[in-house]
Amino acid sequence: MIRKTIQKFFILSLCTLAPFSCSENIIEDEGDKNEAKDIVSISTADELFNFAERVKNGETILDAELVADIDLTGKLWTPIASDYDKRYEGYFKGNKHVITGLTITEEHIKNEFELTEEDLMYFAHPLGLFSYVGNDGAVTGVSLKDLSIETPNIHSVGGIAGENDGTITTCTVSGKIVAKERIGGIAGATHNAISGCENSANINGNDCIGGIAGVAMGYIMSCKNYGNIECTNYVGGISGMCGTKAILFNLENYGEINAQSVAGGITGLLAGKFYNNVNYGTITGTSDIGGLAGSMDRGYYTELQFSYDNPDNAYMENCVNFGIVRGNEDTHAAIGGIHDKTPFGSWTGILNTKNIFYDANANPSLTDERGTAINSNTLSTLNQWVDNKPAEHKNVAFKIWEMDENGKFVIKKN
Questions:
Q1: Most CB atoms within 10 A, among 37, 47, 250, 296?
Q2: ∠ at Cα 288 (292, 283), nearest 5°?
Q3: Is residue 139 within 8 Å of residue 165, measured between CB atoms?
Q4: What are the CA-CA distances from residue 276 to residues 160, 342, 396, 397 (Å)?
Q5: β-pair type (399-403, 409-413)
Q6: Which residues make beta-bridge pairs with 333?
Q7: pTM
Q8: What are the Cα distances from residue 141, in Å, to 172, 176, 293, 351?
Q9: Which residues of 27-54 are buried (b: 16+ CB within 10 A; e: fewer)?
Q10: Which residues, 6+ apart, have CB-to-CB distance to 43 below 8 Å?
């Protein structure tokens, strides 16, 4: 029942705060039907490896908790639950203990799964502390320190989980991740919920990279990214792609992002919705870049398929960009303080506080019509909107933006 309680608490909290309806069948309480019979206490590296082996052998609902910090330095890690048919469905409680030095290399994965170089193109086992966190799985309170994942030809890689269908809460990650695509500091892709997590790991890859999740198709709430990201396309401080069913809420990015195209402080491609998000990081790229979203599109990643079903689905509300948006020497189009000015989606209560640079060494150039440089007048306008917010948004927990006595803009929660 523990993992069900955590999932219900997360969804109920989100429903209370957010201006959208929550389906009653998001989580179906299955009672004690799948409850594990014991809780494994883990205090050493050997015990953690033994737990992973038990899950591999079919004990997928085995609950566990860390009771001490664990040092994996010098050891090579094979993710827990690397078989899709044996996804982790238990409750893994970290108790804020630290796992240091978790290391995954491409050579180790090739040896472990008996892969050739050609096989890597089709390798279908996500990487992280866990490969797959299943629908009933929950991972909470785990801290990864000095994480090192270097798998430049492998996709679906995250610090906590390669693929998350369950809930991941209050986890932290530091270190570095190098992979091909679908990469996140917390999860490579998430289809359900991530809450209260922080990433400080630096990430490098090709496509679909986010400080929290590479691809978001569920809820991401109250998370922060401090890691810097180098990427080719589709990159954001929180998610690389935000799908049509995704909701990003109360998020902050402080990391710097360098990309070629579709890069934003919060998400690269926004096809879903986000609320109350803030970017402080500098965003640098060639085209389709913005302080909050690289591009607002009509629909993407609905059950992993491109969709134009709802042309106005992409939506952002009550968000602020404090970061500089900077083009490079090859910049040719679509740069904005909020997003790249694509004509899809809608927004309300959005502000941009920084000028836009079209050259790394240039003077400030055009300001974005989506939000010019912030001043007391624009603050007043936003605060007035917050105080008189539309009835359909009456349940959202808004942030009100204020200017202190030093002229610095601060957040005051309503």
A1: 296
A2: 50
A3: no
A4: 25, 21, 9, 8
A5: antiparallel
A6: 287
A7: 0.80
A8: 8, 20, 29, 34
A9: beeeeeeeebeeebebeebebbeebbee
A10: 66, 67, 68, 70
The conformational region for residue 318 under phi > 0 = left, psi -120 to 50 = alpha, else beta, is left
On whether the CB atoms of residues 209 and 183 are closer than 8 A, the answer is yes
User: Do residues 76 and 90 lie in contact, with contact meaning Cβ atoms separated by under 8 Å?
Assistant: no
Distance CA 160, CA 128 (A): 5
Write the CA distances from 366 to 182, 283, 289, 354, integer angstroms.
Answer: 33, 16, 14, 11
Secondary structure, 3-state, 55-104: HHCCCCCCEEEECCCEECCCCCCCCECCCHHHCECCEEECCCCEEECCEE
- The span from the CA of 327 to the CA of 236, in Å, is 16
Residues of the chain with pLDDT under 50: 1, 9, 12, 16-17, 19-36, 299-311, 342-344, 349, 354-401, 403, 407, 409-414
> What is the rounded CA–CA span in Å between residue 329 and residue 371?
24
Q: How far apart are the first and last CA of the chain?
A: 34
Q: Tell me the residue type at 20.
A: F
Encoding tokens for residue 185?
A: 């500091």
**Which residues, at least 6 apart from 406, have a Cβ–Cβ distance to it below 8 Å?**
none
pLDDT tens digits for range 50-98: 999 999 999 999 999 999 999 999 999 999 999 999 999 999 999 999 9
Q: Which amino acid is at 409?
A: F
**What gap in Å lies between CA 411 and CA 374, rounded to an integer?**
14
**Interval 99-144: pLDDT, tens:** 999 999 999 999 998 888 878 777 778 999 999 999 999 999 999 9
